[in-house]
Structure prediction request, 210 residues.
Amino acid sequence: MRASWYRETWRSALVGIVVVLAGSLLLGGLTSFGQTYLPAWASSFSNSAGGWTLLAFLLVWASRVHPLLGAVLGAVAFVGLNEGYGVVSAWRGHFYAEPFASVWTRIGLVVGPLVGASASVARYGTPLWRALAVTPLCAVLLGEGVWALNAIADTTSPVYWIIEIVLSVLFMALVLWRRRLRMPQIVLVLAVWLVGTLVYAVGWSVFAAG
Prediction:
């Protein structure tokens, strides 16, 4: 990695924390309104793991923190998104779990560090590591899109799930094109992406069935 994985100044750490915490609470609150006001083909965004993973990834990436703090802020982003959603939903008169009691909070604490560290590596890593850092996000988007088209397409619009699949492929193609990787490296990145997609799809199927 070109920049130290742990190096932060007090200013960079403070700015990063403010960006992620404030941004996640705001965007989480907006997703509550999205359930009501987004068109039918896009309303699944507010309840999709892919959508929230994309938001968390972008928030940490935009914060410009390095991977160690990025891992912490990845968890903060997921929890902030969930709590922002919960507060606004309660304010609108909809039932939601008590603060920090939702299953999504626990999931965010588990997967958030991976997403946050990946977002930071995508900014500061070498070309190969930058490409690999995008695979968790792309795996979630592709895995959820494929799973949803097979499992819940009869109750939700398939348009959003197709958009997730297209975004996954587009992000992967873009990062491979920009990083100018050698063929063995490209094969490695694609393999990690597809294996991650399979792991996500199987794990999500088990979670949804439970």
Notes: The radius of gyration is 17 Å. The chain has two domains: 1-125, 127-210.
